[in-house]
Design goal:
The chain has 7 helices and 3 strands. With 131 residues, the chain is mainly α. Strand 2 and strand 3 form a beta hairpin.
């Protein structure tokens, strides 16, 4: 998989498009919308893996604003709760791949809905912060 998540074309379900629209809103950094996207950030690997199985370094490239430590912790947590599967291959050096589980796939319509809601309500969220 090449390219950064925000540079890819949207899937049929709109997951990448909705996430991209969230990040394009102005003003973004330091706003309540930024906090919502940070919370959604825990689910970004699920959104990326919805596109297919990936290795850790490929995920890291797609999430360039996330440290390796944070990505590792996030993937471990997502694996613990059953949204992501981790497959280790007995090779030298070891090869590890991550994929979305059926449970993770079932979450996607809700994640997409949340991203679309946040995009549609961006103006209200920012306006309410200024009050």
């Amino acid at each position: 998989m090449g390219g950064h998540l925000l540079e890819r074309e949207a899937d049929d379900d709109g997951s990448v498009e909705a996430y991209t629209k969230l990040q394009e809103q102005e003003p973004f950094v330091g706003s309540g919308m930024h906090e919502i996207v940070i919370a959604l950030g825990l689910l970004v690997p699920v959104v990326i893996l919805y596109e297919g199985t990936m290795r850790f370094n490929d995920l890291g490239r797609d999430m360039s604003d996330c440290s390796q430590k944070m990505l590792s912790q996030t993937l471990k947590r997502l694996e613990q709760i059953g949204l992501v599967a981790r497959q280790v291959y007995p090779e030298v050096p070891p090869r590890v791949e991550y994929s979305i589980t059926e449970l993770g796939k079932s979450l996607m319509p809700h994640v997409i809905g949340l991203m679309e809601w946040a995009t549609q309500n961006f103006e209200n969220i920012v306006r309410d912060e200024d009050d």
